[in-house]
Amino acid sequence: MRGAHVHRAVVVRWGIAGLLVLASVVTAIVLTVRHPDALVTLLPSPDMRELHVDFDTFWHSAVALTHGADIYKTPAKLTNLNPPLLTLLLTPLAGFSSLTAYRIFAAFTLVLVVAAVLAVARELRLRRGATALAVLAVLASSPLHGTLVLGQIYPLLLVGLVAGWIAERRGRPVVAAVIFGITVALKPSLAPLLLLPAVQRRWVPLRAGLVAAAAATLLGVLVAGPSSGLEWLRIAVTEPVPDTVDNASLPGLAVRFGVPSVLGTLLGAVVLVGTLAWVGRHRERIDPAGTVPWAVVAAGLLVSPISWHNYLMLLWPGVLVLIALRQGAIAAVALSVIVIPVSWNAEWPPAGFWPDVGRSLYCAILLGYWAVLLRAVLLRPPSADAVAPDGSDVADGTARSDDSTVTTPVSTPSVPSSGS
Fold this sequence. Notes:
Layout: H1 2-34, H2 53-66, H3 84-89, H4 98-124, H5 128-139, H6 142-150, H7 154-169, H8 173-186, H9 196-199, H10 203-224, H11 226-238, H12 250-256, H13 261-281, H14 292-303, H15 316-324, H16 328-336, H17 353-358, H18 361-375, E1 399-400, E2 407-408
Antiparallel strand pairs: 1-2
């Protein structure tokens, strides 16, 4: 009876997931037909100021740094919202023209994204079929296309998060914390990740992460000049919450509906604090190398004033962890919704309550990622004595997921002690 009940639950779960996956793919196809000027078709364009505008901003700051000028006062169209460390990191590209530098950067970051996904899949020992489908979804995704067209730095952040997660998974929490700290120094909106060791009472990694973030930030400030740090702080504090449809954060959602952004910030703070408090309460049962870091990153993105839909790529490794936790149906949905292109926004009238609801799709996706990643925090990889969905015992030393796409080790990762 129990085996039959489990089998029915799996069938229902995959039935619902299949419908959502089909809806996402059909929507993507319809929007691509209706709007043939898809983001990916804009990659070859030489228009740096309007299309590849984010990288153009970074490039101008890097050129200014090499000439000893103010990295935040450049001819670029947009204001550079990133700390000086990023400018320092991109100075090798300052010797090229902006277009050549952009093309080098776009190709490099594409390789980084694919390599990061493959590294996570290898670490989790996902089967080749699951890995191939995940890579295809990533390559077809709107966040990747938008990131490449604009020339954003999210692939660099993704590699940092993946490297830290792998170090944690291999029993090196201090190394992981240092890598996370440096990544946070590049994008301070990821700072809630540094609070994770605090609620888990892992004091040595906490100190290592904070020191690494401070040291990396200071390095950028010293190279760019002390005034650069003050200017960046001024920009970060005064920059308003943008009223754009692809701002997936809760403050952005509030602005979209004409509500003061502070209310969205307060709601986001409740989500973040609640997430950390819940993790702290269950710290003895939580694997720090499971989905918990990705859930905290998602909570941080929800509270941030600006969380573009393209930030979603930072959570893709957590989706792959879901597969290893026998949550293949949920992972399939999470990887399918990302193929819906940003032309979704063009389908709605310019104003009105229901159009605003429709334009909140990206916020809904981010909320969904946060919810499923947090829900999976207490799950463990299946062990050798696990029961397969059909009710039979797994006796070959491995356990299969509900869709038989992943093989995981029989051992359960140990949670480092509170003093690690």
